[in-house]
Amino acid sequence: MISPTDVQLPLRRVEHCMGTAFSFDIRSPGVSPQSFAAVQAWLHWVDNTFSTYRPDSQIIRLADGSITLDQCAPEVREVLDRCTALEAETAGYFSARAAGALDPSGLVKGWAIEQASRMLVERGSSNHCVNGGGDVQCVGRPEAGAQWRIGIAHPLRPSQLAGVAVGSHLAVATSGTAERGSHIVDPHTGAAPTALASVTIVGRDLATTDAYATAAFAMGTRAREWVETLDGFSALIVHADGTEWATHDGDDAATTDGERPRVLR
Amino acid sequence: MKRVILSVIGTVAGVVALLSFKTEGQVANIGGLPSAGLARASSGPGVTASGSPTDASRSAAGASRSAAGPTSSSSSAPVSGGSPTIAFTGAAEQTRYGVVQVKITVTGKTITNVAFVRLEAFDDHSARINSEAAPILLHETLTAQSAHIDSVSGASYTSQGYLESLQSALDAAGLQ
After folding, report:
1. How far is Cα of residue A98 from the mean position of the Cα atoms in its chain?
2. Separation in Å, CA of B69 to nearest CA in chain A
3. Over 60: is that where the pLDDT of A250 sits?
4. What's the DSSP call for residue A7?
5. What is this structure's pTM?
């Protein structure tokens, strides 16, 4: 509920959490300082609960048997159930047990950002972009008549872009060998995939998009075949040898379904 | 065709990636080749390609008019505000389709121009490829500051510092 006395402000702010930076770009109509504080608190709560780097996090204590799932916050079950569903959707290439121990990190950050975005919408923000360590959730428009434009860093050529993702309700997630803080393994082999330098998935909601990017990267050369079966998602793949490939290649001319997220190269 | 263009782009983009913007020196200003001037304003894509590559690409792959290795150039007249304009020319790169050499102009800390110093081809087929590749290459060479983007996804260890400074610059530009 927005009370008439709340001050709604557009803002740009960076919050450091989960070992990375969360960049908020909230356009008009903006949110109240209390609303933004609630979103900041949410991100830190997720960090404290799900971090595999904190020995006292619920996920670690659940993994080592100190506590049961019933003793965890309901969000833990929600995340783990989502991981199970994603494992089925990705032929096992996304897994909360990819490296053996329980670790839903491939989903948590994107899921946390998606929830943060929903909180902002509930609190009156219909136009914003949240970027948490390179995983991005956008809603609405940066300004009237425009769509959000998210550059995709080239994994092999510093300071260059491999493409631009364009959309209104837009999620962009990139997985790759250069990703900080995460070591992706192929759950089927236990080994780190080597065929691709990066995979960027473009969709609507970040939790699924983030997990799909993790899965696609683990698939290596089979990613192309899989992403083409996905409805409502675009992909940009950069191979280890520098060659590139994208689904739904767009051009700068307006398309009739201009609201669908797409990748420009 | 697209794969061919990508390989040209890949080669020259690799050259461009080696450029740095910290040195000063002297080099001749070579015109008549395609370049992309960048609008200083933050709004709009800010990219206009000018010039035609066809004349340059028909020239023989003979003696180079500039140094074969990477060089940097002095400032020309500084822009108002006192920021020096510095150009840096990359190494001349031999590709399957001819020799390519790129120059980047920086004013202060902003890339204000990307230009081909050399864009030569060995035959008509290569000339056509170069004339198609050049505009696409310039688009790809340009960084986030000119592509009019709102944020960046993905990062590499070597570019993490760049992306952090880019993101913080985007954030700082909007701070109240």
Report:
1. 18
2. 20
3. no
4. P
5. 0.63
